[in-house]
Structure formats: structure tokens, C-alpha cells
Amino acid sequence: MVGTAGHVDHGKTMLVKALTGCDTDTLPEEKARGMSINLGFAPCKLPGKRVVGIVDVPGHEDFIKNMVAGATSIDVLVLVVAADDGIMPQTREHLKITGLLHIPVVMAAITKIDLVDAHRQIEVKNSVAEFLREHGYDDAPIVMVSTVSGVGIDEVRQTIQHLVAQVKSDEPGLAFRMNIERSFTVKGYGTVLTGIPMSGRCAVGDELEILPGRLPTVVRALQKFKNESPETQAHICSAINIRNIESNTILRGMTLATPGVYRETFSAIVSIKNVHESISIKRQAQFRIHYGTSAAIVDGILVDRSALVPGESGFMRIRSAEPMIIAAGDRFIMRSLSPISTAGGGVVVSIRTQTRTKKYGVTTETLAKARGAAESGDPFRSEILAGDAAIINLTDLPYLFRCRKQRVDEFVAAQERAGILIPIGPVDWIIQSRIAEVEDVIVRNLTRYHSEKKYSSGMPVADVCRSLGLDRSCGPGLSKVVSRSSRIAVQVKYFSLHDFSPALSDHQVSIKEKIVDKVIHSTTAAPALGDLQQELEVSDSDMRLMVRLLQEEGVLTCIDRHLVHNEFIARCLDSMVRLSGKQSSIELQSFREETGLSRNTAVPILEHFDALGITRREGRGRILVQKSVKE
Ligand SMILES: Nc1nc2c(ncn2[C@@H]2O[C@H](COP(=O)(O)OP(=O)(O)OP(=O)(O)O)[C@@H](O)[C@H]2O)c(=O)[nH]1
Ligand SMILES: [Mg+2]
Questions:
Q1: Which ligand is nearest to the CA of 85?
Q2: Helix crossing, 540-552 with 506-521: angle to 10°?
Q3: So what's the pLDDT on residue 631?
Q4: For residue 175, what are the contacts with CB-CB under 8 A and spacing of at least 6?
Q5: For a designed S-S bond to 345, which of 304, 333, 399, 487 qualifies (C-beta 3.0 to 4.6 A apart)?
Q6: Around Cβ 617, how many Cβ atoms within 10 Å?
């Protein structure tokens, strides 16, 4: 996509007309006022027969919003400067905007050369060259043009041809995404949406969705460069005819995309640069941000400094009352509300932001790395560095990889192989570089837990999982990751702080040891709670506490007021498994023979298995239902 920019009346629309034969000022109001208001689109045939799209933007400062909407989809910029006027305010503002949007390839056309003498032509050419240099475009070609005489038009076309070859093509396989420019109804077809897709491809029959709202739809027909086509792709001016949605429910600024990838967000972490000549950006302020074909009022708070002086860059957390469809890597422009002017702009580094109050813990150094990734087309890296959460869920993956759901597996497998994402459950991953953050949260939770439960050995693994928003099935995976921590002691059933031990007296510790000793050495009959208490001469409360602790620690289980060693229960289960291989129904007698257990111990253990759903009573015997103890 080629786009124009430049001050009002400098000859942008005339240049597009000379290049393409199309008059892009189509609105009656544009005709009446002799100026462009909305965006214009025209296909331009290059000498090598290649066709590129041109978007013509309005120059008047009242329509900067439309200009930005057009400029966000431009790959090659033609900056138009009239020879008589020279560089004017919107020449400057437009180049600032296109600079913030990182339009990489730039040329200038100096128009209306028929109105000035040769001396003035050279003067303007030199000042434009200097102006482009100041903005970092040292080698941008400058072509002298008159749309009245036709001088320079072919040269502009050839220069564009040369420049489009420098535009990087997109990575294949990305999800489709188009910022909607216009929505209207065509008789016999229904709703047609126009715009310039940012990424991916789409074809007739594809399922897509409209955001915000996630309205599902299907592509009925489409056009690229105003010609029927079975498919279209990024950077091509497209008109997409969709099914089932009325055109008046869709507005400019909405998004048409592959289902399940993009999301509505109300906040984001962004990198911004202050491009104003004299005004600093305050720590806390309201702005209007323009992105894609949309705009939103946001509250911004600088996260790494108290103000941004002109020319400075920093990071800001933005928040909007309206849903925004933005993603890491998206460029935007930020305009101050009063006086209305372009204050700055930048790139989104993360939309994975959580609560409003949560203190943002990512360092400026990490944010700078994230910005680098976002700017160089690696939104996944930007998000995993800068996003609030160190844990990623399956539902985040299509967005993070910018791919349809069906392709998530192959992308995530690559990140697992590279050690960047560590799976901890069927649908959850920890970001390797952020394990310490997860540990910090666990340490915080354990500290609180220990202070509230001084006699407890530690926090049950399932509760640790829950405190991180994870399903309990993540327990083993999480334990494995955290087991390397120097701060957290990971046991089979619970986590505790390394330097914590339950607040027990020496006497209590010795009781605990004696109970364990007794339980381990009772091989055929589990000791009854009351008998043991009497034998060891222990108070009620101490006995209760020790039994609870030993159960939490996974040492023993209290079954029918008998204390049974957990390893012993495991051996009983092994016996059941062995017996079930020989006989379908297992009777008490054969279980006792197999284990050598007394009746008083065997019966409660079998009933314990029934209660856990491991066995089921049937007639005189039992049937084995599952072969292990499920957590
Ligand atoms: N003499 C002369 N006049 C020109 C040339 N190019 C454009 N014009 C005139 O300049 C006026 C403005 O041209 P447009 O192409 O509409 O300017 P624009 O930059 O598109 O203006 P906006 O879209 O409103 O910002 C028109 O009256 C044109 O006829 C040129 O090369 N020579
Ligand atoms: Mg115009």
C-alpha cells in the first residue's frame, strides 16, 4: 500500500489522479469544498505491470483522524509538498505521524512546479531534503512534479516501483485481521466491509468474526483492487462481502478477523515517544489514541518516570472505558485533548494486563526489550516479557502466536523445545524467564499461610494451585518447576517455606516421632488412636494435632480411628490389584490372606477404598474400579 501525506491543497489528490486515473474525492462535500475529507483508494499500475494500492489522505488539520486511519496501513509514503508553499504545518505533523507509525519507506513529490521558477524549485527541493534528513530519511528520493503539465508523473511511478521492492513481505500463516474502513450494503449482495488487511489472508467461505462483540460471520464474496477475487491478503485494498450481519451494525474502527485470536481490551502497556516541540507529557493525563481505523479516549499513567519531555520515550499504562481491539506490536498515535495536537505515539507492548490496582512489577529494562521485540515484529516475545502474568493459559495462545486455534500446538511445541514455555498442566505454561515471579507469589501466600497456621506443616498443593488461578491438576507440574527454588520446600502434598517448621515443643516433636515409629512398625494391625494415646501418655489436644500434621504431611491416614501408614495403604492397594488379576470379585478372606492383616484392620481399609471409589462392594466381595489413589 502506497499512501500520500502532506499539507492541505498541496496536490495529493491530483497526483493520485495523475498516477491512477481515479478521482478519489468522491463525496459531494469534498467536491463543494475542493478538499479531501475522507480517505480515497485507487489501484495504481506500475511500469512492470504490478498493481499497488494508493490511499489518499486529507491534508486539512480537522481531518487528521482520517489521515491517521489511512496512514496505519501504508507501507510506502509519498510526502507531497507544493513548490509554491513549501513545508507547512501539516507537512510536519503528517511526517511526525508517519514516523511514529514506522512507515519504513519514504519518498517526496514536490508538486505545482509549473507555478514557480527554477530557483524556487531548487530552494524547495533542498529544504525538503533537509527536512527528510532531520526525520531519519537520508536517502529518500525527491521527484519534481506538475500535474498540469504531466512532468515527473512517470518518474513518480518508477520511483514507487523501485520502493515497493523494499517492502518486507509478511510472515506466512498469520491470522487474518482487517481494520474496517467502511461498511455498507450492496443490493443483491448484502453487507460489504472495506479496508486494508494488516495481516494474513482470507478466502471466500472462510469463517471470520467482527470485534468488538465477536460476531461470527462467513465470507460470501470479495474484491481486491475493485476486482472479484477468490481470496485477498494483507496490504491489499479489499472489499469483503459477509453473511448474516446488517451493515449498519458495523462501524469504522471495528475489526474483521480470524475467530478467537484478537480480543477486546480495556488496558495496555505501551511505549510512547513525545514528539511535541515544547509540551511535556505529564505522569497522568488523558489522550485520544488513534490506532488502525479506530480511536479511543484513554487515561494514561507513565510507569517509569514522572514526565516525558519533548523528544523523550517512556512506558505508559493506558486504560479506556470502551473496548479496544489492539495487540502487541500495533502502532498508534496519541493526541492531546486540549489543545488538540499530536503529542506522541508509539507501539503496544502488552495487552495482558490484569487488575487496575496491581503494582506493575516489570522493570524498565525488560520493558525496553519488549519494545524492541514489538517493534521488530515479534509480539509473542513482547507479550511474554511485558505482560502482567507469568503464567499462560491455552486460551491466550491464538492471540500470542497470532494464529488460528488449530495451529497453536505446533507453535507451542516450538516454544517448549526452546525452553521458553514450561508446561505445568494440560492447558497452562509458566514463562521460563519469569519463574521467580511465580515463586514470589507462592512465597507471599506461604508466609501468610504459615502465620495463620503455625502448627500446619504447609499449604496443600491444591490450594497453592488455586491461589495462582490454576487447576489442581497443575500440582505435579508446578511442584517440578518450583522444586529448584531455594525459598520453597516442595513435598508431595504440600509446599512450605524452606526455613519454616511447625511451632512444636521438643515434647511434641518427640510424640510425633513416636507415633510415626509405632505406625511404621505395625505391619498386621493398625494401632487404634485411643490405645496409642494411652500408651504414649499424650494429651487429647496434642494427639489431635500430631495426627492432623502427619496426615497433612502424607505420612499416615486415620481410618475408622485407626492410624495406618500411607505406604502400608499403598501396599494393600497393590495386593488388591494383584488379586483382581486372579479373581473378579475379591472377598475379605482372600484380601486378609494376601496381606496378613487382622480382621480389625482389613475391614476399615477396604471400606476406605470403597469410600475413595477405588473398590465397589458387590455381593460378598469387592470389585476393583481404579488402580491408584486419585488426588
Ligand atoms: N498548477 C498546479 N496546480 C495544481 C497541481 N497539483 C494540484 N493543483 C491544484 O491544487 C489544488 C489542490 O489540489 P488537490 O490535489 O485537491 O490537493 P490535496 O493535497 O489533495 O488537498 P487536500 O486533500 O484537501 O489536503 C487544486 O486546485 C489543484 O488543481 C499542479 O501540479 N500544478
Ligand atoms: Mg486531497
A1: 1
A2: 60
A3: 47
A4: 199, 200, 257, 258, 261, 262, 398, 402, 403, 404
A5: 333
A6: 12
Please tell me the distance between residue 105's alpha carbon and the centre of ligand 1 in angstroms.
24
C-alpha cell at 455: 502448627
Is the predicted pLDDT of residue 360 greater than 60, yes or no? no
Q: Are 95 and 5 in contact (CB under 8 A)?
A: yes
Ligand 1: atom nearest CA of 59 is 25
Q: pLDDT grade, residue 629 (50/70/90)?
A: low
| Beta carbon of 14 within 6 Å of any ligand 1 atom | yes
Residues contacting 537, CB < 8 A, separation 6+: none
Ligand 2 centroid, distance to 139 Cα (angstroms) = 26
**CB 10 less than 6 A from any atom of ligand 1:** yes
57 CA from centroid of ligand 2 (Å): 6
As a whole number, the mean pLDDT across the chain is 92
Render pLDDT for 40-93 as a digit per residue (tens, 0 to 9). Answer: 999 999 988 888 999 999 999 888 889 998 898 899 999 999 999 999 999 999
Name the burial class of residue 495, with classes exposed (0-12), middle (13-18) and buried (19+) by CB atoms within 10 angstroms of its CB.
buried
| Alpha-carbon span 143 to 125, nearest angstrom | 9
Kindly report the length of the chain: 631
Is 21 exposed, middle or buried (CB count within 10 Å of its CB: 0-12, 13-18, 19+)? exposed
Give the number of the ligand closest to the Cα of residue 9. 1
Q: What is the pLDDT of residues 388-437, one digit of tens each?
A: 888 999 999 999 999 988 889 999 999 999 999 999 999 999 999 999 98
| Cα 603-608-613 angle, rounded to 5 deg | 125
Residue 354 has pLDDT above 80, yes or no: no
Q: How far, in Å, from the CA of 72 to the mean position of ligand 2? A: 18
For residue 79 the three cell numbers come to 510526502
The burial of 119, by beta-carbon neighbours within 10 Å (0-12 exposed, 13-18 middle, 19 or more buried), is given as exposed
| 361 within 8 A of 409, measured Cβ to Cβ | no
Place of cell 482372600: 590
Q: Is there a contact between 106 and 140 (Cβ–Cβ < 8 Å)?
A: yes
Span 473-482, average pLDDT: 94
**C-alpha closest to that of 267 among 354, 344, 329, 370:** 354
Spacing, Cα 421 to ligand 1 middle (Å): 55
Over the stretch 103-162, which tens digit does the pLDDT of each residue have? Answer: 989 999 999 999 999 999 999 999 999 999 999 999 999 999 999 999 999 999 999 999
CA atoms within 13 A on the CB side of 305: 14
Task: Tell me the C-alpha to C-alpha distance, in Å, between residue 157 and each of 45, 51, 54, 247, 597.
Answer: 8, 11, 12, 36, 95
Q: Which helix (H) or strand (E) holds 622?
A: strand 621-624
558 C-beta closer than 6 A to ligand 1 = no
- Residue with C-alpha cell 513545508? 87
* Closest by CA position to 266, among listed 327, 319, 332: 319
